[in-house]
Amino acid sequence: MTAFPQPTVAWAHADEPDRPLVVLLHGRGADEAGIVGLAGHLPPTASYAAVRAPIGEGGAYAWFANRGIGRPVPESLAATMAWFRGWLDEVAPAGRPVLLVGFSGGAAFAGGLLLDEPSRFAGAAVLHGTLPFDAGVPATPGRLEGVPVFLARGDADRVIPAELLDRTWAYVTGDSGAAARTHRDPGGHGLTAPAVNALAAWVEERLARQVLREERTAHQRR
């Protein structure tokens, strides 16, 4: 397996293991400092961890080697996902709900993790990015059946190829079977205030449903 450094993680506040975990995944050419501030716009009832991607690129970081924008090299994606899961299994053992929130390259990485292991996550937000099609993770019909997915896109995005944005939109809202929530606005390759507000509402709903699920489970065990 490719050797990567120990994960560098920026917590929005001290982790509280009894809370759901929201993992923030930055875009290519950035780092954890560029996305951890997003936690300040999201519900305070979760723990928020911004993880630095493991591949160094000119003073910044990437989640995988590319065959082109939005097109991960399959072997690279598999290696970095294994690295990430090693960290995640330590901070969020079985039973702790985990939501993924990824922007741009981080969106593709979040999508890869979700497609590879849909039952591991309470949901994922794919922000201004594409799912990693043709990159060694299954994107078959029904793969995300019932899994909550939030998808945001700007109509003026000129960074991610339009055909990949279109393919992602069609799959998430169609064949995947996901419980999809979408936001689309005239913006470019960056989060607008309306997009952040929509994301916050989705995260809040997911966290509230998780609390209800845990309360119901606890009641059934009595």
Global mean pLDDT? 93
Strand proportion = 15-25%
Order of helices and strands: EEEEEHEHEEHEH
Radius of gyration: 16 Å
**For the report, how would you describe the main beta sheet?**
7 strands, mixed
N/C terminus separation: 45 Å
General form:
globular
Describe the structure.
This protein is α/β, with parallel strands linked by helices and 222 residues long. The protein is 32% helix and 20% strand. It has 4 helices and 9 strands, in the order βββββαβαββαβα. The strands form 2 sheets. It has a 7-stranded mixed beta sheet with strand order 1-3-2-6-7-8-9, sandwiched between helices. It has a two-stranded antiparallel ribbon with strand order 4-5. The radius of gyration is 16 Å and the shape is globular. The termini are far apart. The C terminus is likely disordered.
Keywords:
222 residues, alpha/beta, two-stranded antiparallel sheet, 9 strands, 32% helix, globular
Ordered list of secondary-structure elements with their pairings:
Layout (H helix, E strand, L loop, with lengths): L8 E3 L9 E5 L21 E5 L3 E3 L2 E3 L11 H18 L6 E6 L1 H12 L6 E5 L20 E7 L7 H12 L5 E7 L7 H29 L1
Parallel strand pairs: 2-3, 2-6, 6-7, 7-8, 8-9
Antiparallel strand pairs: 1-3, 4-5
Give me a quick take on this structure:
The protein contains four helices and nine strands; from the N terminus they run E-E-E-E-E-H-E-H-E-E-H-E-H. With 222 residues, the protein is an alpha/beta fold. The strands form two sheets. A seven-stranded mixed beta sheet has the order 1-3-2-6-7-8-9, sandwiched between helices.
